[in-house]
């Protein structure tokens, strides 16, 4: 099935964001929307959308048809570890000279054997094989947090 280059590029961008935030999108919650203590059965969060479920289906398909490609995508996004570190940098501020600014940065760690070209090819495969009638979408909770409103 032919997919136009602009649609493909948009799908790749959205799927890349979904993959990079996969664990937070699928993390189970209790009924009140917070982490559970075992008293209630876990529930899927509102961020577990049709797009995330289709992504999971496609990852399973990719594993069947091209296991090496799947390995590079899964190691890069699904099995990677993230940590928050502080980074200090210097900025020029008018009237104050150089000022140090400390910011928190999310660091993602994955094996050095991950080939970025194969990761890109794997995400492109996911985009080309998208089967929902609607295009992949980011959950509204992510859009709000990306814009800085949350």
Can you describe this structure in just a few lines?
The chain is α+β, with helices and mostly antiparallel strands and 150 residues long. The protein contains 6 helices and 2 strands; from the N terminus they run H-H-H-H-E-E-H-H.
How would you describe what is shown here?
This protein is an alpha+beta fold and 150 residues long. The chain has one domain (5-82, 111-147). It has six helices and two strands. The chain has a two-stranded antiparallel sheet. Strand 1 (81-93) and strand 2 (97-109) form a beta hairpin. Helix 3 packs across helix 4 (67-78). The termini are far apart. The model has no long low-confidence stretch (mean pLDDT 86).
Strand order, sheet with most strands: 1-2
Beta-strand fraction estimate? 15-25%
Order of helices and strands: HHHHEEHH
User: What is the overall number of helices?
Assistant: 6
Radius of gyration, whole Å = 19 Å
Largest sheet: 2 strands, antiparallel
Q: Label the structural class.
A: alpha+beta
Distance between the termini: 39 Å
DSSP helix fraction:
40-55%
Mean pLDDT: 86
Number of strands: 2
Identify the overall geometry. Answer: globular
Poorly predicted runs are none
Number of domains: 1
């Amino acid at each position: 099935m032919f997919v136009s280059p602009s649609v493909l590029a948009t799908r790749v961008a959205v799927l890349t964001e979904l993959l990079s935030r996969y664990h937070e999108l699928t993390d189970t919650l209790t009924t009140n929307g917070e982490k559970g203590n075992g008293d209630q059965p876990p529930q899927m969060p509102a961020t577990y959308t049709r797009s995330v479920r289709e992504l999971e289906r496609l990852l399973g398909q990719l594993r069947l048809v091209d296991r090496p490609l799947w390995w590079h995508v899964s190691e890069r996004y699904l099995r990677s570890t993230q940590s928050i570190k502080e980074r200090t940098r210097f900025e020029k501020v008018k009237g104050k000279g150089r000022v140090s600014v400390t910011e928190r940065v999310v660091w993602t760690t994955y094996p050095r054997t991950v080939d970025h070209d194969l990761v890109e090819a794997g995400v492109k495969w996911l985009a080309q094989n998208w089967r929902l009638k609607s295009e992949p979408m980011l959950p509204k909770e992510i859009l709000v947090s990306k814009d800085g409103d949350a």
